[in-house]
TrEMBL record:
<dbReference type="InterPro" id="IPR004046">
    <property type="entry name" value="GST_C"/>
</dbReference>
<dbReference type="InterPro" id="IPR010987">
    <property type="entry name" value="Glutathione-S-Trfase_C-like"/>
</dbReference>
<feature type="domain" description="GST N-terminal">
    <location>
        <begin position="3"/>
        <end position="90"/>
    </location>
</feature>
<dbReference type="InterPro" id="IPR036249">
    <property type="entry name" value="Thioredoxin-like_sf"/>
</dbReference>
<dbReference type="InterPro" id="IPR004045">
    <property type="entry name" value="Glutathione_S-Trfase_N"/>
</dbReference>
<comment type="similarity">
    <text>Belongs to the GST superfamily.</text>
</comment>
<dbReference type="Pfam" id="PF02798">
    <property type="entry name" value="GST_N"/>
</dbReference>
<feature type="domain" description="GST C-terminal">
    <location>
        <begin position="96"/>
        <end position="222"/>
    </location>
</feature>
<dbReference type="InterPro" id="IPR036282">
    <property type="entry name" value="Glutathione-S-Trfase_C_sf"/>
</dbReference>
<dbReference type="InterPro" id="IPR040079">
    <property type="entry name" value="Glutathione_S-Trfase"/>
</dbReference>
<dbReference type="Pfam" id="PF00043">
    <property type="entry name" value="GST_C"/>
</dbReference>
<protein>
    <recommendedName>
        <fullName>Glutathione transferase</fullName>
    </recommendedName>
</protein>
Length: 280
């Protein structure tokens, strides 16, 4: 069957996962096309063709083949569009004016407050080349996140879902970023309602299908820190931040410019680049 929707994605970042989850929830036939972030060329998010679709040069973006190939970018806008297009009864976006207002306010809260702070911490923890230089940056974003989490924790004392008395696009928008809590070493013990909420989200069949089919790398980042470290030790592969990537290329190693990292064996790395900073 021809896809109803094309999703432009990148498997290592959370926002496209929101859209895949919702497409799974809606039982929509869709295809996923990978776009390399920060690159031109035919498969890059900075290619002229893709910039015509999404001038931001980011993912996600969709093309709705059931609506004259209409395209939408920005994950919150995509969720709203898909909800209205494929679930016009308001199940996921609100059935009344009041429900739609509540969904909108929480969706905008996520897009303008919660996700940006988790994103900054994620970038800092995963990719920043001097992340051990100033730990106050790490503490700043954690403090901001915990302040915002206090609102979520209070909200979840009274209900199972964030916006309404059922799952909505707000919950779907929150899933991928909250699932990074363990990787980011955020303290869920002090936020038991959020911890329960994350478990409820992870158990959704649509979430499992989306992650199993398209977001294995992101799922790896969502693992418990101890499990992730054990896998890294078993494979003897570590994230490495180095400055002279040409040395690696000359020795046959691939370097991902999007993520500013490479994966090599520690002993192999130190042979060719003795001053490399290696961390796990």
């Amino acid at each position: 069957m021809a896809p109803q929707v094309t999703l432009f994605s990148n498997t290592g970042v959370p926002n496209p996962a929101k859209i895949a989850i919702f497409l799974e929830e809606l039982n929509i036939e869709y295809e996923v096309i990978h776009r390399s972030l920060g690159k031109g060329g035919p498969d890059g998010a900075q290619s002229a063709q893709y910039l015509e679709l999404n001038p931001m040069g980011k993912v996600p973006a969709i093309v709705d083949h059931t609506n004259n190939d209409f395209s939408v970018w920005e994950s919150a806008a995509i969720l709203l569009y898909l909800a209205e297009r494929f679930s016009p009864d308001g199940k996921y976006s609100g059935k009344t004016l009041e429900e739609r207002a509540v969904v909108s306010q929480w969706l905008l809260f996520d897009a303008s407050q919660l996700t940006p702070n988790i994103y900054e911490l994620h970038v800092y923890k995963r990719w920043h080349p001097v992340k051990d230089l100033d730990p106050s940056i790490n503490e700043h974003y954690k403090t901001e996140i915990y302040d915002l989490w206090s609102m979520l924790e209070h909200r979840l004392e009274r209900q199972d879902w964030m916006a309404l008395d059922r799952m909505t696009i707000v919950d779907i928008a929150l899933i991928p970023w909250l699932m990074l809590s363990n990787f980011l070493r955020l303290d869920l013990k002090k936020h038991p309602n959020i911890a329960t909420y994350i478990g409820r989200l992870e158990a959704l069949p649509s979430v499992k299908r989306a992650y199993n089919h398209h977001f294995n790398e992101l799922a790896q980042s969502s693992m418990e820190a101890a499990d992730r470290k054990r896998d890294l030790i078993r494979d003897n592969r570590w994230e490495s931040t180095i400055q002279n990537t040409s040395i690696l290329r000359k020795n046959g190693f691939e370097f991902d410019y999007n993520m500013h990292r490479t994966h090599v064996r520690v002993d192999e790395l130190l042979k060719i680049c003795p001053n490399a900073r290696v961390g796990g």
